[in-house]
Every structure is written in structure tokens, then in C-alpha cells.
Specification:
heterodimer; A: alpha+beta; MetI-like fold; 6-stranded antiparallel beta sheet; 4-stranded antiparallel beta sheet; 15 helices; B: alpha/beta; 11 helices; globular
């Protein structure tokens, strides 16, 4: 007994205890990130295509899961077979005994399409304007070369459809507005008719061009054959990528992996968010966090400044401080409801009534948007900033304030030139905490402006460039939407992990930026304690 | 007075070669006079008009009284040292002169403090412009976490001086005046916190000098410094005396003896004795002063 007591007194127990606690925490964090990364990052790797023979027929696809035998049910293997338009479902479970017949045919391809998801099968032939140009392997090779051209074509069509048409539409709209104003004022509308005719002609020309390009895009087609003999003719312009997984070496597969990863980061989503990229969500998340930070930091810092420096320290100030601290504990959905009621309906409605009368009853600000969402989150995170700033302000030593005042500075000058710069590292800590909290909250966003698919981004090239009334996409909401609201949950699963990983990364990058800034300020301030 | 030999006053380190104001005629018996009233035979006193006049100051921290009926005159271009044991009110009096005590809650002051003829506690006095005329150096050096240049320029910047040439000139002049120029002229834009303790204190002095105050108030400026740094600051005080009026609070009696023209001895919030330094240390009037100086208490 004495030995144990001695050991306890020596304090080694505490070292072991604290060490294990730290190790456990690190393990949990790395485990979380590692698990998400493993599940998510493996998504883009072009796995080999396996063909097996089952009693119902041949099955060709990627192996995506296995299940052990339990009692009566035999072992199973899950295959991703693609071809949603032919089979009706992407995934299939097959009895494990069929694996004995497994083979890896070299000409099996996985084709990424614009519609209906992936196609897994073989390329039978390549046609131009209906006449067969090549079959079998030759078709595969030619298709892989020609796909670059069709890609350019597709891009051009898209540009015309989106940018050029939008430009023309805007000019038509402006013209209409001018016309209405002129008619209301009683002025003549002579020149306008001519301009309108010109615009209409330009419109028609654009349409013509579009027609030509579209028919050109339809010229090249490939006939795809699934493993059970069904065929489908698909224009090459609707094909994004041809991946003959079994015929590729590691280098080729890495190339495909990186290409898919890049596409994930910069492209728009397809197939109700289960395919394509998530760039709008990344952009929306980052933008919302930035706007929220711009709103919350001045508000929180000024509030903390008043609480700590100007207000007379008494019962009232203590009450305010307690209330602010309690605000941090309010559930975020409550903030969402407040945001909806106050910001969206009241404020937004008033803004619409004053500034956007001519657009009513279509609401501009009277509905959810990135501004109201950011404001709601700013309100959510303001207590964090206030507390951090108060701590930072009180850590600026009194001697510095006295030195400034003894030189004849006013309290305001002392505040601005000595205290706030000295408290900057602490204020930035508050910012980091606020961003981390704000970037992760999804519930309040759902009520105040986040959508499944946003038609346009809040920042684009049309005046006024920053559209605060637009709805936006958000990574957190995307996870929820893809994971639970998508029509094809099996296809969506890897996407969920990947998006979660990306959200982690975005928050990490934002935090690192703020921490770096804080480090630089700390070095300049000569090492304050906060 | 009894026949105890006078306390040997240490020779000041490196007395400057420039002539100091003429020492007063000690042969003449100054006669008895009330604390605060200086001998009219003092040549310096005749030439130097009063800069700061403290009349009947009583100071209260809440209900506790810290200063009891203080009467003191500081003459222009002289150094007045305030000595006494800890907690006797020297720093409190010093801070009353530039109204830094206003920053503490619950401080109440009665009496008059006149600076250059103007009552600084009169209602309607602009405290900010008062403080601009008085420089203060604190016990623990407190340079701002900015560059050396910005530290010294701070006083000018808050007054709105934007002309680069004026600020440059003032920074150079102040750093030379504080004896720091040669050491920092190549690194004016380095952080002020990178200097040694003694250099930081001289930086604070330069900062105070930059706005050309009338009075410099020093609250134990050397207590945190080593003897070498202390010696340099004491040299500085000799030179500054020519252009400024200096009031220095010090714990160190020898320093007071080395550096000041007049010394005031405080005890428990009361002014016990004030007089010419040489006289106070060699032949003090009050028993308590002599006991303190000879180290019997405090």
C-alpha cells in the first residue's frame, strides 16, 4: 500500500493520465479525419472493372462492398454496375460464389456521361453522321482522341447558352425599362424601336449559331454495349470521360484521379448534386464566412470596447455581460427562426417596399439570401467575439495606457493607437473561433437563404458584382442534401464523405490564415500574453 | 543638531564639464523657515521663478487620507527630489501634478496646485493640454510596442503633426537629448521592446522630451535599472536641468543627493522637511529627517 501511495505522491500518475488524455484526443481527431479522408478520397480512384457470371447473367462493374455470411444468408458482394437508364439502379448485390468466375476484361470501360450517371460496358462502334467509322478497339482509341474536340464544342455551346444569352437578355431588359420610363414621362420612343429590332436580330443570330453548334455536336456518336447485350447510341459530346480502367497503368489511373479531383473542386454539380463538382458550394461557404466575419468583427469589438472601457462597471454592465455569455448557448435553429422573422420578412420586406417596388411581388430582399444568412450567423457568433475581445483588452497592461495618457492623449486616441493594436492578437483569436463556429452551422442557414442548387453565384461579372440578395449553396447543407435528400443514396454516399472532408479543409484554411495573421501581429507587438 | 558626522555623499558619476547654476551661498545662515519656503539668499531661487506651487493639498482615496496639507514650491530649471519610505505619498503627489490621479476612481483632492501661474484643478481646465506640457517617466519603463521612431513620435502624432520633416527633427532631437541617439540611429524602425532596460527607460525619456514639455515628472525612473544604466540617467538629468524643470521621486537617498538641487522628505503623507539638497543631507533641521537619512528607519 505504501508503495502505491509513494508512487501517487511522486506524481507519475498525473503524467500518465494527462498524456493518455492528450493521446486519446489526438487519436479521435485523426481517426475522424482519417476515416472521412479514406472513405472520401478513394471515391475518385478508377477501380478495376470485374466481370462475373451469375445464374441471371453476366455482371460487369466495380466492386464497392462486401458482406460476410450471417447464419442463413450467404456472403454477398456489391457491384456498381452503372447504366441507370438500362437497369434502373446503379448498384447490385451478387452472391459471393459467383466471384469464382471473375475476370478483368481489357476493353471494359467506365464512361462518365452528362445524363444517367456512369455507363459500364464496352464501346461497340463510333459513328459520324450515321456511318460507322470504327469498331472495337479502334473505336475506343478514336473516341478517346475525339473527345477533346467535343469537349471544346460543349464549352462553346455552354458559353453561348449562359453568358452571351444572358448579356443580350440584360440589354433587352434595360431597353424595356428605358421604354417604360420614356412612356411614363411622355417622351418619344423612336430610337428604341430600331434598337429593339437590332437586339432581336442579334438574338436570332445567336440562336442560329447555337443550332449549328448543336447539330455539329450530335454528329459524332458512339454505340455502347452493356455486358448483357443491350446497346445505346450516345453522342460523343454528352460523354465527359472514357476510362478503360483495366487497361490503364498506375500513372494513367493517377491522371484520371487527379482530373476527377480537380473537376470535383471547380465544376458545377450534376444529377441533383450526386455527380459533378461542388464549386458553388465551396464558393458559397467561403463567401458567407467572409461576409459574416466582416459583419461580426466590428460589431463585437465595438461592443466589447464599450463594455470594458467606457461603461461604468456596475450591476447593469454585469447583467449585460452575463446575457451576452448566455447568448452563446442559444440553439442555432432559434437564431435561424429569428433571422427568418426579423431579417428576411421584416427588414427584407421593408427594403423591398422602399427600393425594389417595381419588382414586387417577386421578392428581392424579402426572401432568403446570402446577406440575411451571414447576418444571422454574425449574430450567432457575436458573443464569442465579445468575450475574446474583452479578454484581449484587459490584457493590455495599464502602464501602456498611462504612458499614452501622460503624453496628453485623449482616451479615444489611447484606445485607437495603443489599446486596440495591443489587443489585436486576442481579437483575431476571437475571429478564428467565430469563423470556426459559423462555418459549421447549417440549421440557421436552411431558413435564411441556402438552397440545394443555386442558379447563379452571389459574386459574378454583372453589375453590381456582389449580389447580396441571391441564394447560395453551402457545403454543410450540401452534405445533408446529398446524404439524405438525394434520389440515389448509394451513389451519393462517397460524395457525402468527400464534401465533409472539403468542409474540414475550408475551415482549416480559413483558420490557418487568421492564425498566421495573429502570429505576425504578435511578433510585432513583442509578445503579448493573450 | 547633535554631533553625528554628516552622511558621506557619494561623488556623482561623471559630472559634466558644463557649468551648473551657481551654488547658493551657504555661509549665510538661512535662518528658520517653514517647510515649503525656500531661503531668499539662494541665488538660484532669486533667478528662478516658481514653476509648480503646491498649496495646502489634501488627497483622499475614498475615506483614507493619503496627503496631509502639502505645501511645496518647485523653481524653474531646478531638480526637486521627493524622498521618503514606501507608501508615504511621494508618487501620489507627483501624479497630482499632472492630474494622473484623475484616472483612479474615488480620488478626491483639496487645495491648489499651480503650474506656471495657472490653477490646474480649476473647473474647466483642459486636462489633455495640461498633460501635454508635462512629461512623465514611470518606474517600469513602458515603451509602446511600436518602433523606436514611432515611440518618440507618438506625442507629436497625437497632436496631429503630420509633416515628416518636423517629426524627424523632433525624434532626432529627443533621442540626442535622452542620450540614446548614437545607439539607435541605425535602427529607428526596430521595435522599441528590443532595447535593454536602461535603453528603454531612456526611450521613455525621449518620448517625454519630444513634445517639449515645461516640466518632467519622474517616478523612480532608475529603480529597475542596474548601476551603470542608473548613472547614465543621472547624467541625463544634469543636462536636462538646463531646459526643463524636473521633479523626481526616488527611494534612493544617494541618488537624491547626487542629482537634485532641492529635496523634500515625506513621511506618512506629511511633508516633514524641504530644502537645499546639500543642506538637507549635511545638516537637516528635523530629527526625523536625520534619522531617515542616517538609516535609522525606513
Amino acid at each position: 500500500m505504501a508503495g502505491i501511495r509513494e508512487w501517487w505522491r511522486r506524481g507519475s500518475a498525473l503524467i500518465w493520465l494527462s498524456g493518455s488524455a492528450l493521446a486519446l484526443s489526438i487519436l479521435m481527431i485523426t481517426g475522424l479525419v482519417g476515416y472521412i479522408a479514406a472513405k472520401g478520397l478513394g471515391f475518385f480512384w478508377p477501380h478495376e472493372l470485374v466481370q462475373i457470371q451469375t445464374p441471371e447473367g453476366a455482371v460487369l462493374g466495380q466492386i464497392t462492398g462486401r458482406e460476410e455470411a450471417h447464419g442463413e444468408t450467404p456472403a454477398k458482394v456489391q457491384f456498381r454496375v452503372g447504366n441507370r437508364d438500362l437497369y434502373g439502379q446503379d448498384y447490385r448485390w451478387v452472391g459471393a460464389e459467383a466471384m469464382a468466375t471473375a475476370s478483368r476484361p481489357n476493353d471494359a470501360v467506365l464512361i462518365e456521361r452528362l445524363e444517367y450517371g456512369a455507363f459500364i460496358g464496352r464501346i461497340q462502334s463510333l459513328q459520324r453522321q450515321g456511318t460507322t467509322q470504327a469498331t472495337g478497339w479502334a473505336a475506343l482509341d478514336q473516341a478517346r482522341t475525339l473527345i477533346h474536340e467535343t469537349e471544346l464544342l460543349r464549352e462553346r455551346i455552354r458559353t453561348i447558352e449562359t453568358r452571351d444569352t444572358a448579356k443580350l437578355n440584360r440589354r433587352v431588359e434595360e431597353l424595356h425599362k428605358e421604354r417604360r420610363k420614356a412612356e411614363a414621362a411622355g417622351r418619344s420612343t423612336e430610337g428604341m424601336d430600331a434598337r429593339e429590332a437590332e437586339l432581336n436580330k442579334a438574338f436570332e443570330a445567336l440562336q442560329q449559331r447555337l443550332e449549328t453548334l448543336r447539330s455539329e455536336a450530335q454528329a459524332l456518336t458512339v454505340t455502347l454495349a452493356s455486358v448483357d447485350g443491350q446497346t445505346k447510341e450516345v453522342p460523343l459530346s454528352e460523354i465527359l470521360r472514357i476510362v478503360p480502367s483495366n487497361a490503364m497503368g498506375t500513372v494513367g489511373k493517377t491522371g484520371v484521379y487527379l482530373a476527377r479531383l480537380w473537376e470535383f473542386l471547380v465544376d458545377d454539380p450534376r444529377e441533383s448534386n450526386t455527380e459533378g463538382g461542388i464549386f458553388p458550394a465551396i464558393f458559397g461557404t467561403v463567401m458567407m464566412v467572409l461576409i459574416m466575419s466582416i459583419l461580426v468583427v466590428p460589431l463585437g469589438v465595438l461592443a466589447a470596447l464599450f463594455l470594458r472601457e467606457y461603461a461604468r462597471q456596475g450591476v447593469l454592465v454585469r447583467l449585460v455581460r452575463i446575457s451576452v455569455n448566455n447568448l452563446a448557448g442559444v440553439p442555432s435553429i432559434v437564431f435561424g427562426v429569428f433571422g427568418l422573422g426579423f431579417f428576411v420578412y421584416t427588414l427584407g420586406g421593408s427594403l423591398d417596399a422602399i427600393f425594389f417596388k417595381d419588382k414586387l411581388p417577386t421578392p428581392t430582399f424579402g426572401t432568403g439570401g446570402i446577406l440575411w444568412a451571414s447576418l444571422t450567423l454574425a449574430l450567432l457568433t457575436v458573443p464569442v467575439v465579445i468575450v475574446a475581445t474583452e479578454e484581449a483588452l484587459s490584457s493590455v497592461p495599464r502602464s501602456l495606457r498611462e504612458a499614452s495618457l501622460a503624453l496628453g492623449a485623449t482616451k479615444w486616441q489611447t484606445m485607437w493607437k495603443v489599446v486596440i493594436p495591443g489587443a489585436m492578437p486576442g481579437i483575431l483569436t476571437g475571429l478564428v473561433l467565430a469563423m470556426a463556429r459559423g462555418a459549421g452551422e447549417v440549421a440557421p442557414l436552411m431558413l435564411t437563404g441556402v438552397v440545394k442548387l443555386a442558379p447563379a453565384m452571389p459574386l459574378d461579372t454583372s453589375f453590381p458584382f456582389l449580389h447580396l440578395d441571391r441564394k447560395f449553396m453551402h457545403l454543410g447543407f450540401h452534405i445533408y442534401d446529398v446524404g439524405f435528400q438525394s434520389p440515389n443514396s448509394e451513389a451519393a454516399k462517397p460524395m457525402v464523405f468527400m464534401t465533409a472532408l472539403l468542409l474540414l479543409l475550408v475551415v482549416l484554411v480559413l483558420n490557418l490564415a487568421a492564425l498566421r495573421l495573429r502570429q505576425k501581429l504578435r511578433a510585432r507587438a513583442g509578445g503579448s500574453s493573450f | 543638531m547633535d554631533n553625528t558626522p554628516p552622511i558621506p555623499v557619494a561623488e556623482p558619476v561623471n559630472r559634466p564639464t558644463t557649468p551648473l547654476p551657481p551654488s547658493p551661498a551657504l555661509e549665510q545662515d538661512p535662518g528658520t523657515f517653514a517647510p515649503g519656503e525656500l531661503p531668499l539668499t539662494d541665488q538660484a531661487a532669486l533667478k528662478a521663478p516658481p514653476m509648480i506651487e503646491v498649496e495646502g493639498i489634501n488627497l483622499f482615496y475614498g475615506t483614507k487620507q493619503a496627503l496631509y496639507d502639502i505645501n511645496l514650491t518647485v523653481r524653474r530649471n531646478t531638480v526637486m527630489a521627493l524622498i521618503g519610505p514606501s507608501g508615504c505619498g511621494k508618487s501620489t503627489l507627483l501624479r497630482s501634478i499632472n492630474r494622473m490621479n484623475d484616472l483612479i476612481d474615488g480620488v478626491r483632492i483639496e487645495g491648489r496646485v499651480t503650474v506656471a501661474g495657472e490653477d490646474i484643478y480649476a473647473p474647466g481646465v483642459d486636462v489633455i493640454s495640461l498633460r501635454k506640457r508635462m512629461g512623465m517617466v514611470f518606474q517600469k519603463s513602458n515603451p509602446f510596442p511600436k518602433s523606436i521612431y514611432e515611440n518618440v513620435a507618438y506625442g507629436l502624432r497625437i497632436q496631429g503633426v503630420k509633416d515628416r520633416a518636423i517629426v524627424d527633427e523632433a525624434v532626432e532631437r529627443s533621442l540626442i537629448g535622452a542620450g540614446l541617439w548614437d545607439e539607435v540611429k541605425d535602427r529607428l524602425h526596430d521595435s522599441g521592446l528590443g532595447l535593454s532596460g536602461g535603453q528603454q527607460q531612456r526611450l521613455c525619456i525621449a518620448r517625454a522630451l519630444a513634445v517639449k514639455p515645461d516640466v518632467i515628472l519622474m517616478d523612480e525612473p532608475c529603480s529597475a535599472l542596474d548601476p551603470l544604466a542608473t548613472g547614465r540617467i543621472e547624467e541625463l538629468i544634469f543636462e536636462l536641468k538646463r531646459d526643463y524643470t524636473i521633479v523626481i521621486v526616488t527611494h534612493n537617498m544617494q541618488q537624491a543627493a547626487r542629482v537634485s538641487d532641492y529635496t523634500a522628505f515625506f513621511w506618512m503623507g506629511k511633508l516633514v522637511e524641504v530644502g537645499l539638497t546639500e543642506k538637507l543631507f549635511t545638516n537637516p533641521r528635523e530629527r526625523m529627517t536625520e534619522d531617515y537619512i542616517s538609516g535609522r528607519f525606513g
